[in-house]
Amino acid sequence: MENYDFDVAVIGGGSAGYATARKTAAAGQRTVLIEAGEELGGLCILRGCMPTKALLHAADVRHQARRSSIWGLKPGEVSFDFAEVMRRKASMVEEFASYRRGQLQDGRFELIRALARFRDPHTLELDNGKAVTAEHIMISTGSRVAELPLPGLAKLGCITSDDALRLESLPKSIIVLGGGAVALEFAQFFARFDVEVTLLQRSPHILKAFDDDVAGEVEAAFREEGITVHTGCSLTDARQDGNEKVIVYERDGGQHEVRAEAVFHGLGRSPNTGSLALENGGVETERGRILCDTHMRTSTPHIFAGGDCTGPHEIVHIAIQQGEVAAHNILHPDGLLSMDYRMLISVVFTDPQTATVGHTEKTAKERGIPYLTASYPFNDHGKSIIMEAMHGFVKLLCDPESGEILGGACVGPMGGELIHEIVTAMAKRMTVAELAAVPHYHPTLAEIWTYPAEELAEKITG
To answer: Do domains 6-144+270-331 and 151-267 have the same CATH topology?
Structure first.
């Protein structure tokens, strides 16, 4: 039997890596976690979920205050101190990060601050000149901002999401590239703090992974707020013209250009795997993404991976589940667990919020899954009318024979919260008839789910 330095070596201290290290160490495995970042905490805490949602909440509070005359309130001019907005964000991030630092440094496992790369399938070389060996290795190195698609964009000095979290002042105008969650959330944040925003998206709709009716509601809300949204755009050039940055794009057969003080790069993230020398570990990748089976095993059976570096979904709660599944399978090779993506949840924290669980109409059609669907709008729902939250709807998909809920979508007020009612229903494999029979208090936002559930229950043939 080989004599390794550690039973388990984890590369990366984010959500997936910490979940693995915590679980293997608790089971008595000699565990080391190797982290190369200047700061401890992982993407979610430092540059992702927590700081961005803090900024979005501040923007939403100001937005609601500015429109409060709807309810007969007269707050006057709602000004802001951007430095104070950012200070509160930083304070909250430090609170979360300090807690995670404590968890990583409390002695349950060894922590090494270094960059690791594979020398062979069991050996990791560190940039401090040392090396460690391990029987099992977990890769959880996260993701980084994707490369820009045009050489000219790199010369412009685009603002990334990382940069935006460090801004000391706001530009007067900005071009946002992309139509995914990061691009949309920052576009609305900038707009609600008085920045003139133009958003350019390549696909026919923003949120291309969502159903078109869902995306259309967010587009309508953005335009109503004064955000310029152009879809179906193909970027062709980028240049600096004096103090202005210029983006040239093709749309509807014609060439157009838009000018602004700044450009925001919201074109996604890429797996952070380039420095790992994965080929030395026999780990196969696809466009940088580590290929794993449902047990979170890579092409080399004793090497596992989880989180953004492997996907297929760059979501924190999925990364944690992947880390826990990997740890279980390291500990129990004769009783393997598998990841179950049946109840995949996606939330975009725009206003209106957008959330889905399970199948969308797009995915059901792509996979040939028969379904029935029904929806109900928020502009005909009592609580949302009271709130003046008129954009959006809820939608359910169910099996045509059994009535089992296959998926749900919510685009509207508190969508990220409301979707969890359908997550719970799907976890228990409830039918639409069973959901419709669950008591719901009136007036609440949650009771809106009963309307499409009742409509579908009447159509079930089985």
So the answer is: yes
